[in-house]
């Protein structure tokens, strides 16, 4: 089988954990080249890949046909721009960019060059989210009235990573917010209004390490939140419909599997242990609560779809325009927090 050579820019957590292993296990793709300051780690993990000191050198490699941007958030625009100008289709790790101006410029450049531009919103393929989406699409919950989605962590120490520094793209809103917002938009479309609250709760925190977003679609409400000082996490999803409610706890097991290098081979998606199955609660006069089998999550779906999109067989799995909408909502949320009021939102 002919394979597409992939060049990865940045080999930190996202490049080494959430991209390279998935790419390598996608039939038709191979890790061909890496730009990273962690050259020893990259070489040990991918001895057959070429290592480069900078982006221009990687882009001169004719074996690189697809570029993945996994550099720090503030560099996403420049690295994606260079790759597009070099004639390469591009996948950008979330968040897409750190400003709408940058997002618009990349979208225009990709369209002008006729190149694929996609964003890695991998949480679309979490098992709990796939299960919830299937139930909503089937009408099992009825009309959704209240939607809660959260990422709770207990990380009391402020680190020295770039995500923890007061610079563009730093902070928890731009780290975990894209996942929560993208899922809500996928389920319900653009909201009518947004209200946000941001905080720096840990000692010596330079950037937001807690946030809460309230979205409204008419009378429907959504609450999206994340924190760094949460010892007792709440449900990952809690969704109330007029026919039934959905609750799930914990993270999709794919993340731990990728971190421990045990992510399964392509075609064998990660299954959820029965003890962690979500629950569906229905009934009128008395409650009927029962566990439901969670669908298996599969981040490999993204890269299989990318390969099919490059061949013209399927659409782009996460168009840049969808990621731009996520960035616009996050931008509105930040302004809402600064102004201390609910703001209207238009797509």
Ends distance? 42 Å
What is the CATH C level class of the largest domain, in words? Alpha Beta
Radius of gyration: 20 Å
CATH architecture of the largest domain: 2-Layer Sandwich
Q: What overall geometry do the principal axes of the alpha carbons give? A: globular
Strand percentage: 15-25%
Q: Which consecutive residue ranges, at least 5 long each, have pLDDT under 50?
A: none
Helix content: 25-40%
Q: How many beta-strand elements?
A: 15
Going by CATH, what is the homologous superfamily of the largest domain? Dihydrodipicolinate Reductase, domain 2
Largest sheet descriptor? 9 strands, mixed
Structure, explained:
Helix content is 32%, strand content 23%. It has 347 residues and is α/β, with parallel strands linked by helices. The protein folds into two domains: 4-120, NAD(P)-binding Rossmann-like Domain (Rossmann fold), CATH 3.40.50; 127-297 and 328-344, Dihydrodipicolinate Reductase, domain 2 (2-Layer Sandwich), CATH 3.30.360.10. A nine-stranded mixed beta sheet has the order 14-13-12-11-7-10-9-8-15. Strands 3-2-1-4-5-6 form a six-stranded parallel beta sheet, sandwiched between helices. Helix 5 packs antiparallel against helix 11.
